[in-house]
Specification:
Length: 311
């Protein structure tokens, strides 16, 4: 992140989440319109064009930033880098709590995502394209949560935010998967997106602050790997659970599992100050040191311009 780890980090992450949420909100209706009009071929060509445009923009940005590149770091074996990241996660209670709590929640989220289409068609008896309405409702919630997340991160601690987001998200899952019709489900999906967006911005920002400068990329990779593992585990576990319990019971069981992230987060996460208590920015470099409250003594980080990437 070019702004470093200073007080603007939470606002920058919130802005990034807001732009992604706007895409989540507008893309499904656009896809539905293209499918209903020109057809699937037009949808696929539009998708391909979007990837090519994105690649071109990234290449252009890299070209303009070439003169500002820093010398490459010394070569390290990938296994050594992985061990360094794992040691950092194991040593810092904040990172350890974020990894476990978020992993549990995202596993349940992945399982419920896999079951969205059966939920719409079999439980709500609605057409399959109702999924687009649900995703749009989710996007509305994400937009609202992204707009609020910067202020929330500045006022409350990570434990307070994450526990509240986990409880609110789990409750919204129950409302969604027990909705009597598609309209009620869309409104519940909006309630899922609101704490979900705040949750993602909070995790991203606190990882960026807690990891040391030399291990931030490696720690981010571990969080990415955990997110991917959660997605695979949820996708594989959901159909098996449906086969045993049936669709309705499986949906409620997984929603209850999502709530388990709240007590885990409360137990494992320290209760540091909110991001409002973050160290002052170094105005000469636009960076700030990692919050010492989130790093054990002797492990405080130096100013960092790295970025923990998001899912």
């Amino acid at each position: 992140m070019v702004i470093g780890a200073g007080p603007d980090l939470a606002a920058a992450n919130a802005l990034t989440a807001l732009s992604s949420s706007m895409l989540r909100l507008t893309a499904p209706p656009l896809g539905a319109l293209l499918l209903a009009g020109p057809g699937l071929t037009c949808v696929v060509l539009t998708d391909v064009a979007s990837y090519l445009a994105s690649a071109a923009l990234v290449a252009r940005a890299g070209h303009h930033a070439a003169g500002a590149r820093q010398p490459p770091p010394p070569e390290r074996h990938p296994a050594a880098g992985l061990r360094a990241g794992l040691r950092q996660v194991a040593r810092v209670p904040l990172l350890r709590g974020l990894l476990v709590g978020n992993g549990v929640f995202l596993t349940a989220n992945a399982a419920l995502t896999v079951l969205l289409v059966p939920f719409i068609t079999e439980q709500l008896h609605a057409p399959g394209y109702g999924l687009g309405y649900l995703i749009s409702g989710l996007g509305v919630g994400f937009v609202a949560g992204s707009a609020l997340s910067g202020r929330i991160l500045g006022r409350f601690s990570s434990r307070q935010i994450l526990v509240t987001a986990h409880l609110a998200g789990g409750g919204a899952y129950f409302a969604l998967f027990n909705a009597p019709d598609l309209a009620a489900a869309v409104m519940a999906a909006t309630l899922v997106g609101l704490p979900g967006s705040i949750l993602l911005v909070c995790v991203e920002t606190h990882v960026q602050r807690a990891a040391t400068a030399g291990t931030l990329g490696r720690v981010g990779a571990i969080f990415f790997a955990t997110d991917s593992l959660a997605a695979v585990a949820g996708a594989l576990g959901a159909p098996a659970l449906v086969a045993v319990l049936g669709l309705a019971r499986a949906l409620n069981t997984i929603s209850a599992d999502a709530l388990l992230a709240a007590p885990l987060t409360w137990k494992l996460l320290p209760n540091p100050p909110s991001l409002a208590a973050a160290p002052a920015t170094d105005t000469a470099h636009g960076q700030a040191a990692t919050n010492p409250a989130s790093v054990p003594s002797g492990q405080q980080s130096h100013p960092s311009s790295s970025e923990y990437p998001r899912r």
